[in-house]
Amino acid sequence: MPPATTRKAWRPARNLVALSLVSFFTDASSEIIAPLLPLFLVGTLGATVAFVGIIEGAAESVASLLKFASGWWSDRTGRRKPLILGGYALASFMRPLMAVATSPAQVLGIRVADRVGKGLRASPRDALLAASVEPHERGRAFGFHRASDHAGAVVGPLIAMFCLQVLDMPLRNVFWVAAVPGAISVLVVIFGVREARVPADAPTLIEKVEAVSQAEVTADRESPNAPLGAPFRNAMLSILIFTLGNSTDAFLLLRASDLGVPVTAIPLLWLVLHVVKMVSSAPGGALSDRYGRRPLIVAGWLLYGAVYAGFALADRAWQVWCLFAVYGVVFGLTEGSEKALVADLVPPSRRGAAFGWYHAAIGVAALPASVLFGVLWDRFGASVAFGAGSGIALLATMSFMLSVPVKGRGAMPRS
Predict the structure, then answer these.
(1) Is the overall model pTM greater than 0.85, yes or no?
(2) Which residue range forms the structural domain that includes residue 325?
(3) Which residues contact 276 (CB under 8 A, 6 or more apart)?
């Protein structure tokens, strides 16, 4: 009788570890500021809720459109690291300048510059990460990376709370503290991240699954209008629709404040959200490797719709805490699954552009989503705005279920 085989423990690749550390320190820096920024804008600088939506929507739109350009360029040059380094360095320099802002317009400029850095780095980073791990581990790898990212988002609000409540720092001084973890993230990119090249003719999942024939794949690739394939295009359309109802999380913080959560507890509420994100991201990505990307994404989008409906109906502060916790599960189910799906559906030589299209789809809808949400809130109240977001999420889920193939595992089968 042959000896029983044991499953080897999963060991994350070097680039996965390095990029995860980079994201950890970057998010720690970002989330020192993020939960306080909406209140700073409205309470200190006198911005309207609608202008908060314009700031966040414009910043994310600029970032997402740049993600397309940077992804395409990294495919063309075959080098991901320079764009990754430049993006993290720019954001880490600009972010703490919130401390000297004296008007909402200045905050808009700083936020856009910060997001330019994100636009430069995100698609090359995701393509590099996909090339650095085995295909059947993509969901777990992206989930691990997102978990590290969210771990930084847990540390950031803790630092903010310590500075505000223990050290009794003024709000602007707290913003300066964000420079420290930002600088560490840049050093990790310089010394820890390595280029990883992949052959252009390596097979992709879409060539492996039984639901799609080789003839269909060839036809899609030869079409000048759909070089990345029809399944990829359909998935991006559904993500675009979903993003129209996925406004900036700054509105969730304003809703929490309206329902009685005190300003000093806002960083703790933000902390709860990111603890749940951190805990659920790696298992969510691993589940997508096992059961497929589609079920995880559908479940996450449906849960999003339910959470936004909850925010529309909530009338007590304790309900906000529960909704924030459930909202974190949405990210665990969808973030790693969506990125792994992008890597699954396209050839390795086009992954930079594919991730660019993915982020661009989100960016095209980010500005109108946040502006629309802010206008609905100002004119009709928070309940109408959150109800509209819930309805759009359900519409996107239906589109995704009808247009994205159900057959075939999310992960590439082992050869």
Answers:
(1) no
(2) 14-192+205-403
(3) 324, 325, 326, 327, 328, 329, 332
